[in-house]
Amino acid sequence: LPRVLSGIQPTADSFHLGNYLGAVRNWVAMQDDYDAYYMVVDLHAITVEHDPQALRRRTRVSAAQLLAAGLEPQRCALFAQSHVPEHAQLAWVMSCLTGFGEASRMTQFKDKSAKHGVGAASVGLFTYPILMVADVLLYQAGFVPVGEDQRQHLELTRDLAQRFNTRYGKAFTVPEPYIIKDTAKIMDLQDPTSKMSKSASSPGGILELLDDPKVNAKKIKSAVTDTEREIRFDEENKPGVANLLRIYAALGERTIPELERDYEGKGYGDLKKDLADLVTETFQPFKERTEEILADTGKLDAILAEGAEKAREVASRTLAEVYDKIGFLSK
Ligand code: TYM
């Protein structure tokens, strides 16, 4: 089976709808057709100031949500990044292959450091993409299911894999991004020209999966649209309606043309009400499952420990090969 690897940051108390549609849903769909490795990237989560108690809680909440979404420990390896020390070890090697200028071109660092100024950002935030490179390459992943915002990091991953392979001999599979266009960039409900994001969005613009279903229904109903009345998919002129149609199509397993036909002659209020119901139907059981899973911390931690063991088998093999190729003495 071809291999797949992806990760999500434990930096919030709930995943948002963008995480779910852009990534998590695809992870679940891929676990049978791929040899799948999925992780909660706690090493990445400390690149910005954080509270240790919150990190512990959010790492478990993240893992629980992944299980509630349908990941099954028998069908994939689910683990915490920090449980596999090879991530940090390979990141060092890859950072020595990365140009300073090359790293400086990563737009996510520019965006994230802009708020408080580059000088206030951690070096870890700067080298974040290189740790992500190591994440992917350790597993020889052929495919990496992510949203559009991770594309540049995967280009860096491909470049560095090729660079290593050319300089020192082939050690890495060169991965492909696996980005499903229709759901790769879910937009903010209040500002449909920017992506839904835990850092940038206003609270009304971001739909958190574990939030009270009533709150979420209300957020859908107050989503920004436009002053026309017609329900049609036009991203340029009607970004709010287009975003709602994309979300509806993805959650309801319908096509956008079908939805356009169904809502011909109807108003935005009808569309929003139906979508709010669909969101409630989808995420109320999800929330309940997540809470059940979180109630048994022992079991959850055991699943992560087992996942880490599976992951280390693959990761340690890659790292040994890299250490050898690069000229480190074997022990
Ligand atoms: P993170 O934790 O920010 O986001 C997790 C996943 O959700 C996707 N996503 C979105 N998709 C569609 N629309 C949106 N509005 C939206 N917002 C977020 C992200 O693209 C991502 O797939 N650097 C990564 C984590 C990571 C990783 C890895 C991913 C670390 N190592 C190795 C893949 C492979 C990140 O910060 O994702």
How would you describe this structure to a colleague?
The protein is mainly alpha-helical and 331 residues long. Helix content is 54%, strand content 7%. The chain has helices spanning 17-30, 42-45, 52-68, 86-95, 100-104, 107-114, 123-138, 151-168, 213-221, 239-252, 256-262, 268-295, 297-326, and strands spanning 3-8, 35-40, 76-80, 143-145, 176-178. Helix 8 (151-168) links the parallel strand 4 (143-145) and strand 5. It is globular, with a radius of gyration of 21 Å. The two termini are 32 Å apart. Tryptophanyl-5'AMP binds at residues 5-9, 18-19, 22-23, 41, 44, 132, 135-136, 144, 146-147, 149-150, 184-186, 195-197.
Contiguous uncertain segments of 5+ residues:
none
Strand content: 5-15%
Distance between the termini: 32 Å
- What is the succession of H and E elements? EHEHHEHHHHEHEHHHHH
Mean pLDDT: 97
Present as ligands are: tryptophanyl-5'AMP
Number of helices: 13
